[in-house]
């Protein structure tokens, strides 16, 4: 500090500024110390907060949840039934699907998108899951993830587009998405059970809350990223706003949106065990049961099942996104 | 220019002085705090670590036992929160000293293994007079269907309990995955021949089970579920939600358990378990917990006050000691005097 000589021209005013700031610092520090001394002297180190209103607020939230449970049935019950019927169809399909067909299909898809390595990995890990007696649970988990991801995408794409087109929506949405990603899931699991009953529906609901933000964010980003030159070019050919969105912006944003969907799938898989706490079946339930019985080995195997599914899905969707990116580059 | 330099020096000096003051304040405090603390510690009283199992009865029992051990017997206490299995492992490993609720037969297997080692001792029983586990329906369902009295009547009333997820079968909400009751419920379902008409549904966790039950009662829906008591939820149903009806079952016998399990749950034992070395190091605490006789009435008294006041367990425990009498027979006269003097 002392090396910064104020004698050099031009530094003079800066020197005085520093002086002022430092004086304020000293004054402020002194005032803070004096304040602390008074507080400590008068009330001591364990001072109660004078007003408390946490309980009043939390109780009124309880009442609101109770009220919506009984009075919101006209909306909640059909929603719950709809999601459940959709899930049952998907579940029946995955349960009906003979395992050789599933494995071969996954291997072919992996080979065509992600290449030989992942195809071999898929073959080995899926066969192993059969051998480890995880097959039925894995299929149940697949069905759950499938439904949660489909619903997430159908929410994320329109909301993301809205956010891309309006800065106001974007500004309002951002803290909400932050909250959805950081709020501990247990906080909304119990209200979800009150609203939708025990089982797969609250699990899907909780999974969507946790997993939908990246898809919304990346849809928003993907559309905003489409270069203004391309948009201008399209406009100069006289596209309507609707055509611009559907035929230029969205197709250009697809690789980014796919990256978002990839993230959403991964986060949905991460929710599988938490989802089992409200009665969802599958690999998560196996982990939950094994831990309650103190069988860490059993829990680890079921956990590995989740990891295998995650790796296969991740590599395949990522490769698909890259493919799309390449073809877009080619078109340009 | 000189002024600038001077003021910088002054600032530096001032800041250093402030820093030194703060350091001095802390440094000055430390020895005064540490010195008196150092003298009483050598008295070889161990810190008692309780297993804060994650449901209401052990949390209240622990809070009361801790308050008594601290105020009456002069022990330091601590509690480790967690679930049944992790805390049982902690007890075996010595990270936890006292478990106020070891449920048998729910934890029979783990208990049998641990008993062999000799590290753990049964000190007494807790929660003695309770109705334990059974199959419940809401009172309004029982009133509307007077023919539904016992478990064997269930096939005639399957329509009441059908859901989309269970299809043609009735939904029987079972036990938490991994608990012994999950396995027993399956045996009983088959034993009663109910597996053709009912499907056991896994609630996932206590929190979800409770939420489902409360929500069904609030909506006046028909619901068939496994539950146990005395619990805060069972109490809440009785006082606020119109009550429950426990379906009748044949009495429990050892033969029935060995055969097809077509009978009621046994009254399970809830043990207080302590680590052997803590029993030796704190014999007065072992004696006190041996006389411990916490029952459903105590639990409900505490739970009621907790619901009314919104206080947390430690405050509820103090209130309990100040406003109830039964606990006074569990402690020595000396401890009683100390506790009463401490308020």
Descriptive account of the structure:
Chain A is an all-alpha fold and 332 residues long. Chain A has a domain at 73-98 and 126-331: MetI-like (MetI-like fold, Orthogonal Bundle), CATH 1.10.3720.10. Chain A has 14 helices and no strands. Chain A has helices spanning 12-43, 54-71, 73-96, 99-113, 116-131, 135-165, 167-182, 185-196, 200-225, 228-236, 241-270, 272-276, 283-292, 296-331. In chain A, α7 crosses α9 (200-225), α10 packs antiparallel against α11 (241-270) and α11 (241-270) runs antiparallel to α14 (296-331). Chain A starts with 11 loop residues before the first helix and ends with a helix. The model of chain A is unreliable at 1-11 (pLDDT under 50). Chain B has 343 residues and is α/β, with parallel strands linked by helices. Chain B folds into two domains: 48-129 and 268-342, Periplasmic binding protein-like II (D-Maltodextrin-Binding Protein, domain 2, 3-Layer(aba) Sandwich); 132-258, D-Maltodextrin-Binding Protein, domain 2 (3-Layer(aba) Sandwich). Chain B is 50% helix and 16% strand. Chain B is built from 14 helices and ten strands. Chain B has helices spanning 2-38, 56-73, 84-93, 108-117, 139-144, 180-191, 206-218, 232-240, 254-258, 276-281, 283-291, 296-309, 313-323, 333-342, and strands spanning 48-53, 77-82, 98-104, 120-125, 132-138, 170-173, 198-201, 224-229, 244-246, 269-275. Chain B has a five-stranded mixed sheet, with helices on both faces. In chain B, α2 links the parallel β1 and β2. Chain B is globular and about 65 Å long. The chains are: A mainly alpha (332), B alpha/beta (343). At the A-B interface, α1, α2, α3, α8 and α13 of A face α1, α3 and α7 of B.
């Amino acid at each position: 500090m002392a090396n910064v000589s104020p004698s050099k021209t031009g530094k003079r005013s800066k020197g005085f500024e520093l002086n002022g700031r430092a004086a304020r610092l000293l004054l402020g520090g002194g005032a803070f110390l004096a304040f602390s001394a008074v507080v400590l002297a008068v009330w001591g180190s364990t001072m109660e907060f004078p007003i408390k209103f946490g309980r009043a607020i939390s109780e009124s939230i309880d009442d609101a949840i109770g009220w919506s449970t009984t009075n919101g049935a006209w909306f909640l019950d059909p929603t719950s039934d709809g999601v459940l019927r959709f899930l049952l169809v998907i579940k029946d399909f995955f349960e009906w699907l003979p395992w050789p067909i599933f494995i071969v299909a996954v291997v072919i898809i992996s080979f065509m998108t992600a290449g030989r390595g992942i195809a071999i990995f898929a073959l080995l890990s899926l066969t192993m899951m059969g051998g480890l007696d995880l097959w039925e649970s894995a299929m149940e988990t697949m069905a759950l993830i499938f439904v949660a991801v489909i619903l997430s995408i159908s929410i994320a794409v329109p909301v993301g587009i809205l956010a891309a087109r309006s800065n106001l929506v974007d500004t309002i949405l951002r803290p909400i998405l932050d909250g959805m990603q950081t709020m501990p899931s247990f906080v909304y699991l119990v209200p979800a059970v009150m609203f939708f009953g025990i089982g797969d529906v609250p699990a899907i609901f909780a999974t969507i809350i946790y997993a939908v933000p990246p898809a919304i964010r990346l849809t928003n980003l993907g559309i905003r990223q489409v270069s203004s030159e391309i948009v201008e070019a399209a406009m100069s050919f006289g596209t309507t706003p609707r055509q611009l969105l559907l035929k230029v912006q969205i197709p250009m944003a697809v690789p980014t949106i796919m990256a978002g969907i990839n993230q959403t799938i991964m986060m949905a898989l991460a929710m599988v065990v938490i989802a089992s706490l409200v009665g969802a079946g599958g690999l998560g339930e196996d982990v939950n049961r094994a831990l309650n019985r103190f069988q860490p080995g059993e829990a680890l195997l079921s956990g590995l099942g989740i990891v295998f599914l995650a790796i296969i899905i991740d590599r395949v969707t990522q490769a698909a996104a890259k493919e799309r990116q390449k073809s877009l580059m080619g078109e340009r | 220019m000189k002024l600038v330099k001077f003021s910088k020096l002054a600032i530096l000096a001032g800041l250093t002085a402030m820093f030194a003051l703060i350091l001095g304040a802390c440094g000055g405090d430390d020895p005064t705090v540490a010195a008196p603390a150092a003298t009483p510690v050598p008295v070889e009283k161990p810190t008692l670590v309780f297993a804060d199992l994650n449901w209401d009865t052990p949390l209240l029992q622990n809070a009361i036992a801790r308050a008594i051990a601290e105020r009456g017997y002069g022990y330091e206490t601590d509690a480790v929160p967690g679930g049944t299995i992790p805390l049982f492992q902690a007890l075996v490993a010595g990270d936890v000293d006292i478990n106020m609720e070891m449920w048998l037969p729910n934890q029979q297997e783990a208990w049998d293994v641990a008993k062999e080692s000799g590290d753990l001792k049964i000190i007494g029983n807790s929660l003695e007079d309770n109705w334990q586990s059974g199959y419940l329906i809401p009172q309004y369902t029982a009133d509307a269907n007077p023919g539904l009295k016992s478990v064997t009547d269930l096939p005639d009333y399957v329509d009441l309990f059908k859901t989309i997820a269970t299809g043609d079968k009735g939904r029987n909400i079972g036990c938490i995955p991994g608990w012994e009751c999950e396995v027993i419920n399956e045996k009983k379902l088959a034993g009663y021949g109910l597996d053709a008409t009912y499907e056991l549904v896994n609630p996932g966790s206590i929190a979800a089970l409770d939420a489902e039950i409360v929500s069904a009662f609030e909506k006046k829906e028909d619901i068939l579920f496994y539950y146990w008591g005395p619990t805060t939820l069972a109490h809440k149903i009785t006082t606020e939600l119109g009550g429950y009806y426990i379906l009748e079952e044949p009495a429990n016998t050892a033969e029935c358990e060995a055969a097809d399990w077509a009978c009621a749950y046994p009254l399970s034992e809830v043990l207080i378990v302590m680590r052997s070395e803590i029993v030796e190091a704190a014999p007065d605490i072992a004696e006190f917990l041996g006389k411990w006789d916490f029952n459903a009435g105590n639990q409900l008294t505490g739970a009621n006050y907790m619901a009314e006041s919104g206080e947390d367990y430690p405050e509820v425990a103090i209130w309990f000691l100040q406003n109830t009498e039964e606990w006074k027979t569990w402690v020595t006269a000396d401890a009683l005097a100390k506790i009463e003097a401490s308020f």
